[in-house]
Every structure is written in C-alpha cells, then in structure tokens.
Write a structure and sequence with these properties.
By secondary structure, the chain is of the alpha/beta class. Helix 14 runs parallel beside helix 15. It has 2 domains: 233 residues, Rossmann fold, CATH 3.40.50.300; 242 residues, P-loop containing nucleotide triphosphate hydrolases (Rossmann fold, 3-Layer(aba) Sandwich). The protein has 17 helices and 22 strands. The relative contact order is 0.11.
Length: 503
C-alpha cells in the first residue's frame, strides 16, 4: 500500500509542530524519518494514526484521500503502529492483548480466545517468533513485548506499519533481530515508516531517508550517506560523533561495592554477590543485556531496594541502610533509566523539577521561604546551558519531548555538588546532538575527579565513555575489561562467558 502525506501542518497554540510536511512511502519500502527529539516526527505519525487531527494537509492511501477521526479508522484503513512505549496491558496475556479493541465473540457472547491464540501462533510461526499466546505480558522480556506489539498490528491486516523509535528499549541483539523482522515485512509488501534518531540503524535498514528539523522537512538522504552527513543534516551543524577524552587521572579509591546481593519480591537473587571498585577520575561502564540486574544494582545504590545485603561505600561512608534523600545528600547524582517514573514529576514545571530533592534548604530556600528569584534565574540558566527546548521555565515538564525531559534530569543532577555520578541509560531517547552534549558532561564530571558509573545497553556508548567496562550477567559481574575490548568479546561476555574464556 502506498502512503502519501501532503502538506501536513499541526499546531499546538503558537507552536508549529509540523509545518507543511510532504512524505511518500511506496509499497515494499522502508522509509526512515530521521530527526532529533522535538523535531515533530512522532507528532506527524500521531496525525497519520488518527490520534491528532491535522490543521492542514491530506493523508492518502493508494492515492485516495483519507479522513481519520481516531485510531480505529486508521487501523481499519490498514495502518498499524508499534509505539516506543508499548500500548500493552501488563496483566493480560499475549492473546488478550492482541484481540483488545477488536474482540470477537462466540455463542453466548463469550470471547473467542481460541481464535486469538490461533492468530498469535500463525503470525509467530510466520516470522519465527517464539511467543506463548497464554504468557502474561508483564513476564516477557522487553524484546518479546515488542514482538507482541508487531503481532497486534499485523493481526488487523496492517499494510502500512509505523515503528516509532522501536529500538529505544532494546538491546543490541534485539535491535539486530528487529532489523531482520522489518526486512521480512518489507519483502511481504508492507510499507514501513521507521522513526528514529539512531544513524547506524537508519543506514542499516532504510531504503530512503527523510530528515525533519524543527517541524520541517530539510532534506532527503540515501543510506550510503556517512554518519557525519546525516548528523549534520539532522542537527543543522557539524556534530562530533566521537568522545574526546584524555587518559584518566585516578584519585584514591572512593566508591566500593562488596558482596552486594539483592533479592526481589519472589525471592530471586537479581544481584548476586557483586563486587566493584570505581576510583575518582574514571568512568566504569556497566554493559549487559537488559534484565541482568543492572536496574536493581543502581536502585540498591540509591536506597531503593529493601532486600539487600553487602556493602556500598562512598569515600568510606556506608550507604546501605540509608534513605534515598540521605544518599542524595551524601553527594550521589542519579540519572534514572526511566525518567518518567523516577526522574520527573510530569505536572510540575521545568523550574520545579530542577529543584526537586533540594526544596528544603539552600540555595533555593531561606528562612523557610522559597527564593523564587533565585529559582527563576537558576532555571533560565540551565534551560540555556542544556538547550532545553520549551516556551519557558513554567512549562510543565510532561509537555516536553522525551529528549528534552532527559535534559531536565541531566541539568538537575549535574548541577549538584557531586561525589559520585550514577547514570543509567543517560542518552536513551536523545538525538546525536544531545548525546554529544551529555557525553561531554559525563567526561567533565570524570575529569573533575568524580567516580562515574554508567549503565548502558548501547555498546557504542559503553566503549566511547568507559575507562573500564564491567559486564553483568545474571546479577553478577563476569569480568572487567579495558575500553578497547572488541565488540565480539563483549558480546560473548554479555551471553555469560567469563572474560578469559571469551578471548
């Protein structure tokens, strides 16, 4: 099915999110929509999917103008969307999620779950997915949940598939598998719109590339274009895609984890007797397939895990047993992997989010009163310094794009007096320009003598930032290796092989 967007314009008050955008996707084509966060990519696709109504412009399928009043109309016309944040009910089974919104019934008004199960099995077999129709979604790994989203779209005979930042929550291995799935769908005649800001993925899978910047189409590119060319087109300036850093100047050992064990609510050891030492002035990156205890490890540092034993020392001070607020007061900066849940209060303004956890004393409070002038100045400075794109400091942070939300978190945490920086997926959802800036800030913290722990599933990021790499597997560290360790060896270690065996 051929998809064509003509002159799509979408305004939110004074903000023009999409400015007369034209886009054409042929049947059997993967068309990448490339742009930094806040460029208008997702808004454009939400118009296509019927979630927003365009102020101007037309949507055409096989040269016929469409009028969508909601997602139901879009789905009926053959459009399916795989969202960045999965639209699945965690406590429902795979089959229940697939039929949700399109329920069929048998005699007596009973849901035809057998039919849904059969549909899941049919599509799973077609694409080589290993999915149990009766499995609860909440029990599935993130990569498998995404396959459920794809099956849900295909079950409605979608012929135009929109993948909105589909790799944001995937490991490198899962990303490779998704690329293979997209090629398979393309060969079956599907039209695919691939929204992303990751240059490697675009060059790997796209047939054509359209670049959007600040709500406008600024050009088209071919997959053979270099990363530097694509980045420059996307951001509007030359971008340094490498991390420039001098060899570390090591200080005395300042962050030591010994025998750390975390037990989840089911009694499983999610962190298992973990030892780690990070000295001031170095970055130790934690690599590993998501779900191997990285999240629980960072939560244990921050006092968010109640069932743990072992020791976590910062400059000789024990952090185990301390409340989150006490950990922060001890000088720990924390960039959580889920900014929406752990990093921000969506209803609060940018300014209010920038002073979270510090609203009970200096420099924001004096004699029991909030220093509004100081907060305003501080917020304006951080908005400018971190290039937070928003109408102003009073904008609710929930109205910002994901990338700009992450910048708010970074601005707050990096403005503290730090003795340790823990960054979990610090560039998730950020464009190349923002990634460049974040990496510079992390290196600056390291160069200031702060011990830095970076947790990332992006191997490019791990190897670029790290002075040493610790690989986690099933809650433990299988080895600590130099930053220049080959990707192949790191991949084997991420699958559980010891460092000496993976050589």
């Amino acid at each position: 099915m051929k998809l064509e967007l003509r002159g799509i314009t979408k305004r939110f008050g004074a903000l023009v999110a999409n400015d007369h955008i034209d886009l054409e996707v042929q049947a059997g084509e993967i068309h990448a929509l490339l742009g930094e966060n806040g460029a208008g990519k997702s808004t454009l696709m939400n118009v296509l999917y019927g979630l927003y109504r365009a102020d101007e412009g037309e949507i055409l399928l096989d040269d016929k103008v469409q009028h969508f009043s909601g997602p139901g109309d879009a789905m009926a016309a053959g459009i399916g969307m795989v969202h960045q944040h999965f639209m699945l009910i965690p406590v429902f089974t795979v089959a229940e999620n697939v039929m949700l919104g399109h329920e069929t019934t048998r005699w007596g008004g009973r849901l035809d779950l057998d039919g849904a199960r059969a549909k899941v099995r049919e599509l799973a077999e077609r694409f080589g997915f290993d999915i149990d129709p009766d499995a609860l979604v909440e029990d599935l790994p993130v990569g498998v949940q995404q396959r459920v989203e794809i099956i849900k779209a295909l079950s409605q005979d979608a012929r135009v598939l929109v993948f909105d930042e589909p790799t944001a929550v995937l490991t490198p291995q899962e990303t490779d598998e998704l690329m293979a799935i997209m090629r398979q769908l393309k060969e079956g005649g599907a039209s695919i719109v691939f929204i992303t800001h990751k240059l490697r993925e675009v060059r790997e899978v796209a047939d054509r590339i359209t670049v959007i910047r600040l709500g406008k189409v600024v050009g088209e590119a071919v997959p053979t274009a270099t990363n530097a060319e694509l980045a420059s087109l996307m951001v509007g300036r030359a971008v340094d895609l490498t991390v420039d850093k001098e060899p570390p100047t090591l200080r005395d050992e300042s962050f030591v984890v010994h025998g750390l064990t975390v037990v989840d609510a089911r009694g499983h050891r999610v962190v298992d007797n973990l030892d780690l030492e990070v000295r001031g002035g170095e970055v130790v990156a934690i690599a590993g397939v998501q779900g191997n205890g990285q999240t629980e490890f960072t939560e244990a540092i921050m006092g968010l895990q109640p069932r743990l034993r072992g020791s976590i020392l910062l400059n000789g001070v024990e952090l185990v047993g301390r409340h989150v607020s006490e950990v922060l007061e001890a000088g720990v900066g924390f960039i959580p992997e889920d900014r929406k849940v752990d990093g921000l209060v969506a209803e609060f303004t940018i300014a209010e989010n920038l002073m979270l956890d510090r609203s009970d004393g200096e420099p924001f409070v004096e004699r029991g009163s909030l220093k509004l002038d100081y907060l305003a100045t501080f917020a304006d400075e951080k908005i400018a310094e971190f290039d937070i794109r928003a109408p102003g400091r009073q904008t609710p942070v929930g109205r910002l794009s994901g990338g700009n939300q992450q910048k708010v978190v970074l601005a707050r945490e990096l403005s503290r007096e730090l003795k340790l920086l823990v960054a979990a997926q610090p560039t998730r959802g950020l464009d190349v320009g923002s990634i460049e800036f974040v990496h510079e800030q992390i290196v600056s913290a390291r160069d200031a003598g702060i011990p830095v722990v970076v947790v990332s599933t992006e191997l490019d990021e791990v190897t670029a930032l790290a002075d040493r790499i610790a690989v986690m597997y099933k809650g433990g560290i299988v080895g600590i290796v130099p930053a220049d360790t080959p990707r192949e060896k790191l991949g084997l270690m991420m699958a559980g092989e010891k460092a000496e065996d993976a050589a």
